[in-house]
Amino acid sequence: MGYIMSETPRPVVMLSAYTTERAEATMRALDFGAVDFIAKPSGTISLNLETVADQLLDALRAAASANLSAVPVRMPRRAPPAPVRPRLREGEQPSAAVAVAAATGGPRALAELLPRLRNPLGATVLVVQHMPPRFTRTLAERLDGMGGLSVSEAEDGEPVRRDHVYLAPGDFHMRVVSGGGEVRIALDQEPSVWGVRPAADPLFHSVAAVYGARSLGVVLTGMGRDGADGLRGIREAGGRGIAQDRASAVIWGMPQAAAEWADTVLPLDHIAAEIEAVVDQLPLPGIGA
């Protein structure tokens, strides 16, 4: 894959099995320049590939229009240390939340964005990446190993903590819910939104409901318009919004749809600094104020 993308760049879509080993290989292929992947429906030897035919065709059509300049070969690396502020008490509930949406090209975008965020950030980070089960756990583990904020695949009912990144697990919508003076993760398998589960819109709307003006929505590269309506909800609740620009996005579908609700449209390598600046500007009263 690295040779193909360095010598004769072309859009590539992987067809991968639902196994830990294949998930890791798929993540490496995305590092080396693959645009997207589709999971085989029934393991390494799948005799029913017709069940994902429409999904595969959609991915191929999207890949054909991909911005290949945004997918150079990326060797996995640890980010340089981020500037450190005085650390808050471990396990403290956040007074602000950053919700991030990503799809096609998202794993690479997240690998560039998240390690750049300072630690501590002063907010929780909640991420929806359109991706099947098992692959999200592998992605979370890879992101966690890149430095910066700690990253994990979210678990139903766990408390939301400051300076931690929660990645929605494949096949589950992720929301935040407030009760008993605490904010927790809520996972469910309600119907797909925009044809995907997890979807960003349910997360963004829940962040708007719980954090209000202390919320920030970020919509990164991806096909479709997931995240746009959720970003509208965050803005209407008094929060802020960022969309990735066309030049740095692999597919400028989701960020384009969200741009009308965004305060700023930025290249990927400027978004981490903008997140930090916005978090510093968000009001600081407790949850529900």
Automatic annotation (TrEMBL):
- What GO CC annotations are associated with the protein? cytoplasm
A single GO BP term for this record reads: chemotaxis
Instruction: Give the catalysed reaction(s), semicolon-separated.
Output: [protein]-L-glutamate 5-O-methyl ester + H2O = L-glutamyl-[protein] + methanol + H(+)
> Matching Pfam families, A to Z?
CheB_methylest
Give one GO term, molecular function aspect: phosphorelay response regulator activity
Question: Does the record bear Cytoplasm in its keywords?
Answer: yes
Q: Where along the sequence do coiled-coil regions lie?
A: none
Q: Which keywords has UniProt assigned to this entry?
A: Cytoplasm, Hydrolase
What protein is this chain from?
Answer: protein-glutamate methylesterase
The species is: uncultured Gemmatimonadota bacterium
